[in-house]
Amino acid sequence: MKTYKKIIIPLILILNFGFIQAQQDPMYTHYMYNTLVINPAYAGSRDALTVTALHRSQWVNFKGAPMVQTLSLHSPLRNEHIGIGLSVSNDKIGPTNNTSAVLDFAYIMKLNKKSKLALGLSAGANMFQANLSSVQLDQQADPSFQNDVNNRFTPNFGFGAYYSRERFYAGVSVPKILENKYSDLNLNAGNNPAGMEQRHYYFIAGSMIKISDNLDFKPTTFVKVTPAAPIQADVTAAFVIKKKVLLGVMYRTGDAVGALIGLDLTEQFHIGYSYDYSYGLQTFKYHQGSHEIMLRYDFIFSSKKQIRTPRFF
């Protein structure tokens, strides 16, 4: 077991740190509620100041496993065509820690009485740290792990588009356009950086299909594309019972299966929990699955005391 950990933890670190081209951004089972972190054009899409908090513990009981927390808030302005938002996240895996803060701006256009199209921009910065010298390796002379990274500051920009109707949405985004270097170390004579961000392309879509007065079907998807890495898709199928209780299952290609449960405690306060279990890597033999909890609250300042129209997303 100790030998296995010595092998797999550096491997996970390599995937996250960017020594090879791979998907680096954190994954979320509650992506359909954590939309602002994925697409800046989502800012202001609800008639409220919406605050969302999420915590994910991945591969529980596996040493050095990923753990991420996000906090986002967004709201439309008095000008109904403008939405603004702020997202803060902390992503930890093994000896690495990446903290980011992002400001979002969206311009919202009404295409007709039932649909809108928003274009969004984001600007933010990451603070990256990696205590690489603390990793136990079978080959201690590996130069990739001999130099720590201390408070590496990297700015970034992103953009997105978000189309929405009352019961349907779709969006595309590139949250990080710049491919920043995390380290000045080069792997070979070709001057290939040892740590570099890779640009991610995202597609999201979802719908709310009415089955009866007390039952709705809510399918959603989240597709992630990264150069030189396999395309990954999350597909979620959920049922909403009496507009209060959500029960669903999810499938992540090449990685995991899981289940979600959600509850509207009030018209403004939603709480969600998910559990997923990885099957794609040999790590499934040594962990107890991944847990995620999400809280969302809508601060409504309208004199009507309610959101003008239902917001299913």
Biggest sheet strand line-up: 1-2-3-4-5-6-7-8-10-11-12-13-14-15
When the domains are counted, the total is 1
Largest sheet: 14 strands, antiparallel, barrel
User: What string gives the helices and strands in order?
Assistant: HHEEEEEEEEEEEEEEE
Query: Count the helices. How many?
Result: 2
Taking all residues together, what is the mean pLDDT?
83
Count of individual beta strands: 15
Low-confidence stretches: 1-23, 185-194
- Using the 3D structure, state the CATH architecture: Beta Barrel
Task: Give the CATH H-level superfamily.
Answer: monomeric porin ompg
Report strand %: over 45%
Q: What form results from the Cα inertia axes?
A: globular
Radius of gyration: 20 Å
| Proportion of residues in helical segments | under 10%
Instruction: Output the CATH topology.
Output: Porin
> Span between N and C termini?
43 Å
From the helix content, strand content and strand pairing, which structural class follows?
mainly beta
- The CATH class name reads Mainly Beta
Q: Can you describe what's shown?
A:
The chain is built from 2 helices and 15 strands. It is mostly beta strands and 313 residues long. It has a 14-stranded antiparallel barrel with strand order 1-2-3-4-5-6-7-8-10-11-12-13-14-15. A hairpin with a 3-residue loop joins strand 12 and strand 13 (256-264). The longest helix is centred in the N-terminal third of the chain and has 16 residues, at 2-17.
Short structural summary:
This protein is mostly beta strands.
